[in-house]
């Protein structure tokens, strides 16, 4: 798949490495060229320095024929704007938006964006881990429902 | 009318001042406390809220529920887009306008259905038009650039000088809205005579601007 990732922070870089190692064609965009150092030497995708919601940059990244798009910069509004361009202007099939502010995630879910509110997910994982509760966590990505399986604690010896 | 402005920079500040002097109920949301305080001190009749205009709670504090117009004029285009979308889609504000700082983002706003004002584009257009069109000025581009209000100054050599309105064959999709003569606004009728020195205000589709210019002022 041709996948565009906007934001080369820790999450973006790891996602790019992961997908690239699985054989996908990755183009990663970040406004700072030095962020691409995080990708390491094994990354064999393309990196473009520029603003992730700039139509010119997105065209260079091949948005017209992209199969999937992830916006994972540290700015919620930048992620929302870039995702709307991908989804509503270029009709990219799979667009996922990372949002820090849970309030905004809810609002943009209503607008049809598939959002992952990492703040909410991490808070819930911590809560469950602290309370030693079940290892299943429900979350939703916009319109699609899903869940993450994780282990909150080691099984106690019987 | 209740107007809510987001962004207290030079544009937001001047706009708030102009609107409140013009008798509009005006509110302004500004992120930086220091700037918000300064504006609040200067503008007595403006409700100033300190907070992030992308936060629906702050917009509610500023009375967005009763706003007829929301203007987003922060220095960040992504913020202006989100503010306008929140205003229109979540709060149902009938008229929303965004400032676009980088002209490259204008197309995105237009495709997402948000009306924009870009000072860079306006200045560029004004300069271009000064250079190429001469006596006709685009006063305002409306409806996402599809419709424009233009002003043309009639001189003795203009093909329409000393003719009545009904003698003039205007291009399609354009109408003469008014005539300014000796600082008086007149609404033209069929038998109104156009005189040198008149300033014609016309409405036209953007693509008809050149045809309109030729009709009113002749070929260059």
Automatic annotation (TrEMBL), chain A:
One of its GO terms (molecular function) is potassium ion transmembrane transporter activity. Residues 1-118 form the RCK N-terminal domain. InterPro entries: K_uptake_TrkA, NAD(P)-bd_dom_sf, RCK_N, Trk_Ktr_HKT_K-transport. Gene3D superfamilies: NAD(P)-binding Rossmann-like Domain. GO terms for cellular component: plasma membrane. Keywords: Ion transport, Potassium, Potassium transport, Transport. Transmembrane segments: none annotated. It holds the Pfam family TrkA_N. This is Potassium transporter TrkA. It comes from candidate division WOR-1 bacterium RIFCSPLOWO2_02_FULL_46_20.
TrEMBL record, chain B:
Keywords: Ion transport, NAD, Potassium, Potassium transport, Transport. It comes from candidate division WOR-1 bacterium RIFCSPLOWO2_02_FULL_46_20. Residues 1-119 form the RCK N-terminal domain. This is Trk system potassium uptake protein TrkA. GO terms for cellular component: plasma membrane. GO terms for molecular function: potassium ion transmembrane transporter activity. Residues 137-218 form the RCK C-terminal domain. Pfam families: TrkA_C, TrkA_N. Gene3D superfamilies: NAD(P)-binding Rossmann-like Domain, Regulator of K+ conductance, C-terminal domain.
